[in-house]
UniProtKB/TrEMBL annotation:
The lineage of its organism: Bacteria, Bacillati, Actinomycetota, Actinomycetes, Kitasatosporales. The chain crosses the membrane at residues 38-55, 67-94, 100-119, 126-148, 154-176, 188-208, 220-236, 257-281, 293-315, 322-341, 347-366, 399-417, 437-456. PROSITE patterns: MFS, SUGAR_TRANSPORT_1. This is Drug resistance transporter, EmrB/QacAsubfamily. GO terms for molecular function: transmembrane transporter activity. CDD domains: MFS_MMR_MDR_like (cd17321). GO terms for biological process: response to antibiotic. One of its GO terms (cellular component) is plasma membrane. It is a multi-pass membrane protein. Keywords: Antibiotic resistance, Cell membrane, Membrane, Transmembrane, Transmembrane helix, Transport.
Length: 468
C-alpha cells in the first residue's frame, strides 16, 4: 500500500517540473508561441492549486479508496491525451485535466497514509518515505524530463504517467481497504467550494502573472485582490455554515498550523533553489538538461536521508519544536552559501555544499510538517486536512517562483544599468540577480525557523492517532 501511495504522490509532484524540460521540443513540434508556452505550466498549477480543498473534501465524502483510484484513472487519461496532443489547445486542456485529477489524488494519498499507518514506528517510516517523495519530486522531474526528452521525445514526459498510474492502481486495488462510513454522508458546502476554488485559482493566477508581467500590472494585482476578497468570504462562510468545507478546528490547532506554515515557507525556498540553481547550471556553467538533473541528485539523496532520520531518530527524541526550526536554519545556511556563486565558480565547491545542506535541512522540515499537519484529525475530515498540506506546498511554490524571480530580474536589470552590457557584465549581472533571490530565500527560511519555534508547543505530546 505504501508503494502505491508514494508512486501517486511522486507522479503528482514531479509532473509540475518534468514537462518544463520538454517545453522547447513541444513548442517546435506543435508550433505554439513563446507567449503561449507558459500556459502549459500554468494550466496544471491553476487547476491543481484551485481544486485541492474541494478534492480533499470529496475524498472524505466518497471514500479514500474510490477517490484514490478515480484520481489515478483521471491523471492517466489526461496524460495520455496530452501525449497524443496534435495542437496547443489539446495540450493545455490535458494539463488542466491533469491538475484537476491531481487535486483529488494528492490529498487522498496523504489521507490514506495518515489513517492506515497508526503504530508509531510504522507511521514514522511511512511518512519518511512519503515526505521524501513529496520533497524530491520536483528535482526528480527535472532529471526525468531531460532523459525522456533527449532519449525518446517530449511526449514521453506525459506518457510515463500512464505506466506509473497503472502500477499504482494495481497495487491500490488489492492493498487499500474501503473505509466504513460512520453516520450519514456529509453534505457538500457548494457555495464554500465555489468561493475557495475561485479564490485559490485567482491566487495562483496572480502569482503566475506577476512572474512575467510584474506586480504592478493589472493581470497580477487584479487576481490577487479578487483572491483576497474570495478567501475572506470563504472564511466567513465556514464559521457560520452547518457543514463547512474546511472545519475551522483543522486550522486552529497550534501544531497543525505550524505544520502548514512550515510546508509553505519551505516550499518558497525549495522552488527558488530549483529555479535559480537550474538557471545557473545551464546558463553560467553550460550544463545540459540531463547533467543539470544529475547535479540535483545529491540534494535528493540528502533530502531522503533527512526525512528518514527526522521520523525515526530526531522527532521521537527532540520533537517538532526543535527539529523543524533546525532544519529551516540549515536551509538558510545553504542559501547563504549560494549567494557567493560567481560566473566561474565550480559545481563541486560552489553549488554542491549548499545543495547538501538544503536537502538535509528541508528533508527534516517537510516530513515533520506533513506529520504535524495531519495529526489528531478526525477521520471524517482527514482528506480536507491533507488538502491543506498540499495547498500550502502549492501556494508556497507559486509564491517562491513569482516573488524570487521578480526580485532576481529587477536586481539583474539594475546591475546592467550600472555596469553596462558587455559579456562579462551580463554574466555577472545574472549571478548577482540569483544572489539577491538566495538572500531572500535565506530570509524566508530564517522567518520559518522563528515562526515554527513559536507555534509548536513546548512539550512534545503524543499525537492522537485517528482510527481506521
Amino acid at each position: 500500500m505504501l508503494g502505491a501511495v508514494v508512486l501517486a504522490q511522486l507522479m503528482v509532484v514531479l509532473d509540475g517540473t518534468v514537462v518544463n524540460i520538454a517545453l522547447p521540443s513541444a513548442q517546435t513540434d506543435l508550433g505554439f508561441t513563446d507567449g503561449d508556452r507558459q500556459w502549459i505550466v500554468t494550466g496544471y498549477s491553476l487547476a491543481f492549486g484551485g481544486l485541492l480543498l474541494l478534492g480533499g473534501r470529496v475524498s472524505d465524502m466518497i471514500g479514500r479508496k474510490r477517490a484514490f483510484l478515480a484520481g489515478l484513472v483521471g491523471f492517466a487519461a489526461a496524460s495520455a491525451l496530452g501525449g497524443a496532443a496534435d495542437g496547443f489547445g489539446v495540450l493545455v486542456a490535458a494539463r488542466v485535466l491533469q491538475g484537476a485529477a491531481g487535486a483529488l489524488l494528492a490529498p487522498t494519498a496523504l489521507a490514506v497514509l495518515a489513517t492506515t499507518f497508526t503504530a508509531p514506528k510504522e507511521r514514522a517510516r511511512a511518512f519518511g518515505v512519503f515526505s521524501a517523495a513529496a520533497g524530491a519530486g520536483s528535482a526528480i522531474g527535472v532529471l526525468l524530463g531531460g532523459f525522456l526528452t533527449e532519449g525518446l521525445n517530449w511526449r514521453w514526459t506525459l506518457y510515463i504517467n500512464v505506466f506509473i498510474a497503472v502500477v499504482a492502481a494495481a497495487a491500490a486495488t488489492v492493498s487499500i481497504g474501503r473505509t466504513p462510513r460512520r453516520g450519514p454522508r456529509p453534505a457538500l458546502d457548494i457555495p464554500g467550494a465555489v468561493l475557495v476554488s475561485a479564490g485559490l485559482f485567482a491566487l495562483v493566477l496572480g502569482f503566475s502573472e506577476a512572474e512575467t508581467d510584474g506586480w504592478a500590472s493589472p493581470p497580477s494585482w487584479a487576481p490577487l485582490t479578487a483572491s483576497a476578497l474570495l478567501l475572506v468570504a470563504f472564511a466567513a462562510r465556514q464559521r457560520r455554515t452547518a457543514h463547512p468545507l474546511l472545519p475551522p478546528g483543522v486550522l486552529l490547532d497550534r501544531d497543525r498550523a505550524a505544520g502548514y506554515s512550515g510546508i509553505l515557507l519551505a516550499s518558497v525556498g525549495m522552488f527558488g533553489v530549483s529555479l535559480f540553481v537550474n538557471y545557473y547550471l545551464q546558463d553560467s556553467l553550460h550544463y545540459s538538461p540531463i547533467r543539470t538533473g544529475l547535479a540535483f541528485l545529491p540534494m535528493v539523496v540528502l533530502l531522503v536521508i533527512g526525512s528518514q532520520l527526522a521520523t525515526n531518530v530526531f522527532l521521537p527524541r527532540l520533537g517538532h519544536r526543535r527539529v523543524v526550526p533546525t532544519g529551516m536554519a540549515l536551509g538558510a545556511v545553504g542559501m547563504v552559501l549560494l549567494t557567493g556563486l560567481e560566473p566561474d565558480s565550480t559545481y563541486t565547491t560552489g553549488v554542491l555544499p549548499a545543495l547538501l545542506l538544503i536537502g538535509f535541512g528541508i528533508g527534516n522540515v517537510i516530513t515533520s510538517s506533513f506529520q504535524a499537519g495531519t495529526s489528531g484529525v478526525d477521520p471524517g475530515t482527514i482528506g480536507v486536512a491533507s488538502a491543506v498540506v498540499n495547498t500550502s506546498q502549492q501556494i508556497g511554490g507559486s509564491i517562491g517562483t513569482a516573488l524570487l524571480n521578480t526580485l532576481a530580474t529587477a536586481a539583474t536589470g539594475h546591475y546592467l544599468a550600472a555596469h553596462g552590457t558587455s559579456p562579462a557584465a551580463t554574466a555577472q549581472a545574472a549571478t548577482h540577480g540569483y544572489a539577491v533571490a538566495y538572500w531572500w530565500g535565506a530570509g524566508t527560511y530564517t522567518a520559518g525557523a522563528l515562526l515554527t519555534a513559536l507555534l509548536y508547543r513546548h512539550k512534545r505530546r503524543p499525537a492522537p492517532q485517528p482510527s481506521t
